[in-house]
Amino acid sequence: MNQILINYQQVRQRITDAVNKADLEVVEPCLLAVSKKHSLDKIITLAKNGHKDFGESYAQEGVNKIEQCQYLSLIWHFIGPIQSNKAKLIAEYFAWVHSVDRMKIVKRLMKFRSADLAPLNVLLQLKVGDEASKSGASLTELLEMAAAVEVAETLSLRGIMCIPPSSQDFAEQKFYFMQAKEAFDVLKNQYKQIDTLSMGMSNDLEAAVECGSTMVRVGTDIFGKRPY
Fold first, then answer.
1. Could you give the CA distance from residue 23 to residue 36 in angstroms, rounded to a whole number?
2. Quick one: 6 exposed, middle or buried, by C-beta within 10 A (0-12, 13-18, 19+)?
3. Residue 55 belongs to what H/E stretch?
4. How many CA atoms lie within 13 A of 198 on its CB side?
5. What CA–CA distance (Å, rounded) separates 60 from 76?
6. 3-17+28-223, superfamily in CATH?
7. Taking 80 as the threshold, does the pLDDT of residue 86 lie above it?
8. For residue 3, what are the contacts with CB-CB under 8 A and spacing of at least 6?
9. Angle, CA of 66, 71 and 72, to the nearest 5°
10. What are the sequence ranges of the domains in the chain?
């Protein structure tokens, strides 16, 4: 059996185990396979075995893969930092965008998403922790963006994404994820269609699941280390 498929099944089992272990009732989150910097053949291997959701962090690389995989009817998520000059590509090609962190990007996605396409599913990136290298908005900024996305005909407000500081401590991981869960609940109280809390990666998905994640983003533990 292909090593990628073995890895994939192991990750799915980790998710199931985390759900079963959680003290509170939680839903099993969607698994987003993060394929950035990985070759097309790896994506196709996973896709031909039933996986549909893939995440990319670089707009042009993602577009190239999307164009070559059209026959597979995959669901593509943009999860990386958004440069203003890349918003057009993201709006034109992706079904989801997880990393909307400022109003300027909301306006550009709104401008460039064609009315002929299904509305672009938008997750607003909440900043947790104080790392200067990490993007994200405050809760106040997030609520302002949510109001703008809500009235945009070409965008669909779906929830929140976060990338916490890296930690091996389970309690610390949960501390940051609970900040995102609290913000998610605030947003959900205002907008009933909110249903997606994107948090958790290879090293911390168990803590994320326990805190209510509905979508985990896993790359390394499925595809292996990025080749460059």
1. 34
2. exposed
3. strand 53-56
4. 30
5. 13
6. Alanine racemase (3.20.20.10)
7. yes
8. 224
9. 80
10. 3-17+28-223
